[in-house]
Amino acid sequence: MKRAVVLLSGGMDSAVTLALAREQGFTCHALSVAYGQRHASELQAAARVATMLGAVEHKIVDVDLRSIGGSALTADIAVPAHERVHAADEIPVTYVPARNTIMLSVALGWAEVLGANDIFCGVNAVDYSGYPDCRPAFIAAFEKLANLATKAGVEGHHLHVHAPLIALSKAGIVREGMRLGVDFSATVSCYRADSEGRGCGQCDACGLRAQGFADAGVADPTRYR
Fold it and tell me: What number is the average pLDDT over the span 168-194?
């Protein structure tokens, strides 16, 4: 049995990542992190997606990143509306310091406990907000760290960090999700989603999501408030 830990935020990218891991024959243990994000309804979406896509287990781990702040998602900083910030420009205020490093570290710990050699995450370096921890170099560096810093790695059980969406456009992610039967209406991407998971239609995450459906020629099932 091939086991994998799949980071599951509740958004469209992580849902497609879970579906791809299942397609590749992995028994999937879904992991979500409650880090104090203002869009906490994504955790409810993650639970729906984990059930919908057949994860054998869904764990939510609490890591209080509000205690250090520094991001519009974890502090009293406004989430920009109608703003696109690309990788070549400044990093946006929605970047959460060290978030993916922390999440992958928690996933790595759980993978060791499970005896899993594979971790999946839904980071993307094409249609994204310019976060430094979504780049291929970061994923490669973390995989190297994982094999240096763990009992499993030292004993020769090579650990792999998979980022299957990293080179796909949002439209490509939508198409993959449709092929795999992902119900995107169950997912939440909005940085300002309300308690029912409805999107604002104005933040960067909503903009990227809507453009992905438009470019793929697929009707957008997102619920907006």
Answer: 96
